[in-house]
Design brief:
By secondary structure, the chain is of the alpha+beta class. It has helices at about 5-10, 100-110, 150-160, and strands spanning about 1-5, 15-20, 25-30, 30-35, 40-50, 50-60, 60-65, 75, 80-85, 95, 100. It binds zinc ion (2 copies).
Length: about 160
Amino acid sequence: MLDIKDVLLTENGKSSYKTDMERTSLSYRTGDFPVEGHPVIEVTVENKGDRKFRLSGCTAPVIRIPCARCLKPVLYRLDVRFDFETDPDETTYIDGYYLDVDQLIHDEALLVWPERVLCREDCKGLCSVCGHDLNDGPCGCEHTQADPRMAKILDIFNNFKEV
Ligand SMILES: [Zn+2]
Ligand SMILES: [Zn+2]
Protein backbone atom coordinates (compact mmCIF):
# COMPACT_ATOMS: atom_id res chain seq x y z
CA MET A 1 0.00 0.00 0.00
CA LEU A 2 1.30 3.40 -1.00
CA ASP A 3 0.64 6.47 1.14
CA ILE A 4 -0.80 9.13 -1.22
CA LYS A 5 -2.29 11.36 1.46
CA ASP A 6 -0.51 14.51 0.27
CA VAL A 7 -1.88 14.41 -3.24
CA LEU A 8 -5.33 13.27 -2.11
CA LEU A 9 -5.63 16.38 0.04
CA THR A 10 -4.13 18.81 -2.48
CA GLU A 11 -6.49 19.94 -5.19
CA ASN A 12 -4.62 20.06 -8.53
CA GLY A 13 -1.68 18.38 -6.84
CA LYS A 14 0.43 15.81 -8.61
CA SER A 15 2.93 13.34 -7.17
CA SER A 16 5.08 10.63 -8.66
CA TYR A 17 6.17 7.61 -6.67
CA LYS A 18 8.49 4.68 -7.09
CA THR A 19 7.72 1.61 -5.08
CA ASP A 20 8.52 -2.09 -5.15
CA MET A 21 5.89 -4.63 -5.97
CA GLU A 22 5.21 -6.67 -2.85
CA ARG A 23 3.18 -9.57 -4.12
CA THR A 24 5.25 -12.50 -5.29
CA SER A 25 2.82 -13.99 -7.79
CA LEU A 26 0.11 -13.01 -10.25
CA SER A 27 -3.07 -15.06 -10.64
CA TYR A 28 -4.38 -15.75 -14.08
CA ARG A 29 -7.08 -18.17 -15.28
CA THR A 30 -4.80 -21.18 -15.18
CA GLY A 31 -3.15 -20.57 -11.82
CA ASP A 32 -0.61 -18.53 -9.89
CA PHE A 33 2.55 -17.41 -11.66
CA PRO A 34 5.62 -16.42 -9.62
CA VAL A 35 7.05 -12.94 -10.12
CA GLU A 36 10.84 -12.68 -10.17
CA GLY A 37 12.21 -10.35 -7.51
CA HIS A 38 10.34 -7.16 -6.68
CA PRO A 39 9.81 -5.08 -9.83
CA VAL A 40 9.84 -1.31 -9.46
CA ILE A 41 6.45 0.31 -10.02
CA GLU A 42 6.29 3.92 -11.18
CA VAL A 43 3.02 5.61 -10.47
CA THR A 44 1.81 9.18 -10.79
CA VAL A 45 -1.29 10.40 -8.98
CA GLU A 46 -2.95 13.61 -10.09
CA ASN A 47 -5.70 15.28 -8.11
CA LYS A 48 -8.02 16.76 -10.73
CA GLY A 49 -10.47 18.20 -8.22
CA ASP A 50 -14.11 17.14 -7.73
CA ARG A 51 -12.84 13.86 -6.29
CA LYS A 52 -11.39 12.86 -9.65
CA PHE A 53 -7.95 11.30 -9.66
CA ARG A 54 -5.78 10.34 -12.56
CA LEU A 55 -3.59 7.30 -12.03
CA SER A 56 -0.81 6.61 -14.51
CA GLY A 57 2.39 4.64 -14.50
CA CYS A 58 4.20 1.52 -15.55
CA THR A 59 6.13 -1.52 -14.45
CA ALA A 60 7.64 -4.55 -16.14
CA PRO A 61 7.35 -7.61 -13.91
CA VAL A 62 9.06 -10.79 -15.08
CA ILE A 63 6.85 -13.82 -14.54
CA ARG A 64 7.72 -17.49 -14.60
CA ILE A 65 5.31 -19.28 -16.90
CA PRO A 66 5.39 -22.80 -18.38
CA CYS A 67 6.16 -23.26 -22.08
CA ALA A 68 2.88 -24.10 -23.84
CA ARG A 69 4.45 -27.17 -25.44
CA CYS A 70 7.06 -28.67 -23.11
CA LEU A 71 5.96 -27.06 -19.81
CA LYS A 72 9.49 -25.93 -18.97
CA PRO A 73 9.38 -22.66 -16.99
CA VAL A 74 10.07 -19.60 -19.14
CA LEU A 75 10.79 -16.07 -17.92
CA TYR A 76 8.46 -13.59 -19.60
CA ARG A 77 8.44 -9.82 -19.16
CA LEU A 78 5.04 -8.16 -19.00
CA ASP A 79 4.87 -4.57 -20.20
CA VAL A 80 2.28 -3.03 -17.88
CA ARG A 81 1.15 0.56 -18.54
CA PHE A 82 -1.89 2.31 -17.23
CA ASP A 83 -3.48 5.74 -17.39
CA PHE A 84 -7.03 6.31 -16.24
CA GLU A 85 -9.20 8.55 -14.14
CA THR A 86 -11.10 7.36 -11.15
CA ASP A 87 -13.06 8.42 -8.12
CA PRO A 88 -12.20 7.06 -4.66
CA ASP A 89 -15.88 6.15 -4.21
CA GLU A 90 -15.93 3.86 -7.22
CA THR A 91 -12.47 2.30 -7.15
CA THR A 92 -11.18 -0.31 -4.76
CA TYR A 93 -7.59 0.80 -5.40
CA ILE A 94 -7.85 3.86 -3.17
CA ASP A 95 -8.52 2.96 0.43
CA GLY A 96 -8.42 5.87 2.84
CA TYR A 97 -5.13 7.64 2.16
CA TYR A 98 -3.57 4.60 0.53
CA LEU A 99 -3.27 3.33 -3.00
CA ASP A 100 -3.31 -0.44 -3.40
CA VAL A 101 -0.62 -0.44 -6.08
CA ASP A 102 -0.18 -4.21 -6.10
CA GLN A 103 -3.85 -4.85 -6.81
CA LEU A 104 -3.82 -2.20 -9.52
CA ILE A 105 -0.76 -3.75 -11.17
CA HIS A 106 -2.24 -7.21 -10.82
CA ASP A 107 -5.41 -6.23 -12.69
CA GLU A 108 -3.52 -4.30 -15.37
CA ALA A 109 -1.10 -7.20 -15.88
CA LEU A 110 -4.00 -9.49 -16.78
CA LEU A 111 -4.83 -7.16 -19.69
CA VAL A 112 -1.44 -7.77 -21.29
CA TRP A 113 -1.15 -11.44 -20.37
CA PRO A 114 0.35 -13.50 -23.23
CA GLU A 115 -1.91 -15.93 -25.09
CA ARG A 116 0.82 -18.53 -24.77
CA VAL A 117 4.55 -18.58 -24.20
CA LEU A 118 7.05 -20.89 -25.87
CA CYS A 119 10.54 -21.61 -24.51
CA ARG A 120 11.65 -21.19 -28.13
CA GLU A 121 9.86 -20.83 -31.45
CA ASP A 122 10.63 -24.39 -32.56
CA CYS A 123 10.05 -26.12 -29.22
CA LYS A 124 9.27 -29.74 -30.05
CA GLY A 125 7.10 -30.33 -27.01
CA LEU A 126 6.54 -33.50 -25.05
CA CYS A 127 5.90 -36.99 -26.39
CA SER A 128 2.19 -37.61 -26.01
CA VAL A 129 2.83 -41.26 -25.10
CA CYS A 130 5.67 -41.20 -22.56
CA GLY A 131 5.93 -37.49 -21.72
CA HIS A 132 9.58 -37.30 -22.75
CA ASP A 133 10.85 -33.82 -23.60
CA LEU A 134 11.50 -34.11 -27.33
CA ASN A 135 13.88 -31.15 -27.21
CA ASP A 136 16.28 -33.55 -25.51
CA GLY A 137 16.08 -35.96 -28.45
CA PRO A 138 13.70 -38.72 -29.54
CA CYS A 139 12.27 -41.05 -26.91
CA GLY A 140 11.83 -44.25 -28.91
CA CYS A 141 8.05 -44.20 -29.11
CA GLU A 142 6.90 -44.99 -32.63
CA HIS A 143 5.29 -41.72 -33.69
CA THR A 144 7.80 -39.39 -32.12
CA GLN A 145 9.62 -38.14 -35.14
CA ALA A 146 10.02 -34.60 -33.91
CA ASP A 147 7.83 -32.65 -36.27
CA PRO A 148 7.21 -29.01 -35.43
CA ARG A 149 4.03 -29.09 -37.54
CA MET A 150 2.70 -31.81 -35.27
CA ALA A 151 3.61 -29.73 -32.22
CA LYS A 152 1.54 -26.88 -33.64
CA ILE A 153 -1.44 -29.16 -34.17
CA LEU A 154 -1.11 -30.37 -30.58
CA ASP A 155 -1.09 -26.76 -29.41
CA ILE A 156 -4.35 -26.07 -31.16
CA PHE A 157 -5.81 -29.23 -29.72
CA ASN A 158 -4.63 -28.34 -26.20
CA ASN A 159 -5.95 -24.81 -26.44
CA PHE A 160 -9.27 -26.15 -27.63
CA LYS A 161 -9.48 -28.50 -24.66
CA GLU A 162 -8.99 -25.64 -22.20
CA VAL A 163 -11.98 -23.69 -23.45
ZN1 LIG B 1 9.16 -25.63 -24.73
ZN1 LIG C 1 7.72 -41.19 -26.06
